[in-house]
Amino acid sequence: MVKTRRALMFIVFLLLGMLISLQFRGIINNQENNISVREMALRLEAEEAEGRKLLEELNSLETEWSQLLNNIGSRQQDPEIMELIRQRDYEYFRAGLTNVKGDGIVITMQDAQTAGDMNIEDYIIHDADITGILNELRSNGAEAISINGERILGTSKLVCAGPTIFLNKSRYPPPYVIKAIGDPDTLYDAIDQLPNVAVMRLYGIRIDIRKEYDMIIEKYRLYESVSEWLSNLEVATE
User: Fold this and answer.
1) pLDDT for res 238
2) Nearest to 217, CA basis, from 179, 182, 183
3) Which of 72, 95, 118 marks a domain boundary?
4) Other CB atoms closer than 10 Å to residue 67's CB: what's the count?
5) Which residue from 221, 232, 195 is spatially nearest to 56, judged by alpha carbons?
6) Pick from 192, 22, 43, 203: which is nearest to 107 by CA?
7) Contact assessment for residue 114 and residue 204, using Cβ atoms and an 8 Å cutoff
8) What is the C-alpha separation between 95 and 78, in angstroms, rounded?
9) Mind listing the pLDDT tens digit for each residue in 127-181?
10) pTM above 0.85, yes or no
């Protein structure tokens, strides 16, 4: 009986010692992980600061280079240089690499407020809904288009991701604000009378269209933020 009690006590103390050891190791590991997280946060801040500095330098160099070409053409009045500058500006415009200012319309799209008895797919905005509007804007002479401040290019493709959309590698939730520069009356009538817009409104999707004057649609930027720049840099170096 005594031997059995001693054996049980030995097993209990052994298990207790193992538990204490495991708990102690867990505390040490957590401390190491916390130190690692702090170090990573500091490193990320440093990389973001460096990335922000490089992006600012890049924008400054682009401005200086553009001004230099304009100065050369205006000083020498060389027809060939002036033609090259004109072609450059036109190609930059076509590629969405210049700011565009003018009159146009602003379209604000939001999901329906309540589903009711409808299928969830019927009361949220899909990529095809926006694509149809973009195509209608282009066919009615829109010179420049943006969604939530991001310039639409000829290669831009919308992809549905649940209740959000992906555009140019960025994710955007509703509301979707579409700006288009062109003849305000033509663009307004084209979108307001679009059958697809009528169907969306029937399902409760809110679509507001208004004419806007002297608005600016900014150029497409390869990286909209330092974080995006760092993310793409990490992918490229893997």
Assistant:
1) 44
2) 179
3) 95
4) 10
5) 221
6) 192
7) yes
8) 26
9) 889 999 999 999 999 999 999 988 888 777 777 776 788 887 788 888 999 999 9
10) no
Closest CA to 148 of 161, 127, 167: 167
The one-character DSSP state at 100 is: E
Residue burial 190-224, b: 16+ Cβ < 10 Å; e: rest: bbeebebbeebeeebbebebeeeeebebbbbeebe
CB 107 within 8 A of CB 208: yes
Domain limits for position 163: 100-217
Asked if pLDDT for residue 235 goes beyond 50, the answer is: no
Where is the domain boundary, 95, 120, 139? 95
Give me the sign of the Cα torsion angle 223, 214, 60, 64.
Answer: positive
Is the Cβ–Cβ distance between 122 and 203 less than 8 Å? yes
Judged by phi (left if over 0) then psi (alpha if -120 to 50, else beta), residue 20 lies in alpha
* pLDDT above 90 coverage of the chain, percent: 27
Q: Which residue has the tokens 């304009």?
A: 70
Neighbours of 101 (CB within 10 A): 13
* Position 6 in a domain: no
In whole angstroms, what is the distance from residue 101 CA to residue 218 CA?
Answer: 8
Q: What gap in Å lies between CA 5 and CA 237, rounded to an integer?
A: 63
Task: Specify the number of domains making up the chain.
Answer: 2
- The pLDDT of residue 159: 79
Q: Which of 43, 48, 46, 55 is nearest to 224 (CA)?
A: 55
* DSSP conformation class of 121: G
Residue from 230, 237, 236, 223 nearest 46 by CA: 230
